[in-house]
Amino acid sequence: MKKKVTAMFLALAMTASLAACGQSSNSGTTTEAAAATEAATTTAAAAEAETKTADASKEASSGEKYLVGVNMGSIDQSYYAFLRMGLEEERGDDVELFVTYHEWDLTTQIKQIEDFVTMGCDLIVVVAADPDGILPALTTAKEAGIPIIEMDCPTNYFPEYSIGQFVTDDYDAGYQCGKAMAESMNGEGVVQSYVITATINSQRRLAGFCDAIKEYPKIENVYNATEKFDATTAQTVIENMLLAHPETTGLFTSNDKIGNAAVNFFKANNIKNVCLTHVAAGTRDTVYTWLNEGWDYAAYDQNPVNMGAAVMRAIYDYFENGTVSTEATIIPGEMRFAGDEYVCDPVYYD
């Protein structure tokens, strides 16, 4: 509008100036005045057309969709279906999600993030397969001017390379599981852990669990398994753990997959004297069944739906206000105990 008004004033000034020259000159003619008027009209019309074009462009751009690339963990872990459900619950029609899964392979993740950059994504959300090894992909995105938000599994480069970080307090998750187990055992017995230490999340869960158990001098913590998870061997690992220490009265696992292996082994051998606690990474329907049936004593629910929703709100904050957070956002979890009844939320799938 400012450009339009200025152009009109200039046109009028030009007309007045030329008209004045015509009046003061004996050789001036009405043709010059007419030409000046026509030029002024043309200039004003051009200015108005420019303003309309700019306004139309602005309206078009405001109706465009933002493209957000989301790089998650494993497609067969329903935890990430719950994360996506949270994203979808807060997503409007002006944001399009392009979701990929790296299946915990760093090379795959780097390639997928580079693809997001090539696609021209407006923002990228990452679940880090490796908190250090992801740096080349973060660098590529940063050099392209594409902001990154970390979700669930953090990197070691926040906030230098990312504008937000949304995680669970994994140490607290492990600690609360340890406290629940110790109290159920009346503060004495033998406990073991099957924890994958390939991710920083599981490392923190194990640290919290061990610290909680240390508070009970009559509890012996005999073994903390650190093998990488393999669905076909997890039950064998648990069987070997319990055979090596048949006096075990407590078992802690760092995620639902290992918890599932434990429950299957317990059911197959009718074992009900081992207190199982674990961090519920998202298979709520299954975990709630274990709790309701008494195979599982306690689980720390990370509330992945809440995490996904919080991330999407942060995405909008950035698009609308340029908001950047230099502090990690901790999504609070909740302990779930056997004997209570739980209803699972529906899971979002494609």
In short:
The chain has 350 residues and is an alpha/beta fold. The chain contains 11 helices and 12 strands.
Feature tags:
6-stranded mixed beta sheet, 12 strands, 50% helix, 11 helices, disordered N terminus, alpha/beta, 350 residues, elongated
Describe the structure.
This protein is of the alpha/beta class. It contains 11 helices and 12 strands. The strands form 2 sheets. It has a 6-stranded parallel sheet, sandwiched between helices. Strand 6 (188-194), helix 7 (200-214) and strand 7 form a beta-alpha-beta unit. The longest helix has 33 residues, at 30-62. The chain is elongated and about 60 Å long. The chain starts with a helix and ends in a 13-residue tail after the last strand. Mean pLDDT is 82; it is low at 1-37, 39-47 and 49-61.
Q: Tally of extended strands? A: 12
Low-pLDDT parts are: 1-37, 39-47, 49-61
Class by SSE composition:
alpha/beta
Radius of gyration from CA coordinates: 31 Å
Average pLDDT number:
82
What is the count of helical runs? 11
The order of strands across the largest sheet is: 2-1-3-4-5-11
Structural shape: elongated
Report how far apart the termini are.
Answer: 46 Å
Main beta-sheet strand count, sense and barrel state: 6 strands, parallel
Binned, the helix content reads: 40-55%
Strand content: 15-25%
Order of helices and strands: HHEHEHEHEEHEHEHEHEHEHEE
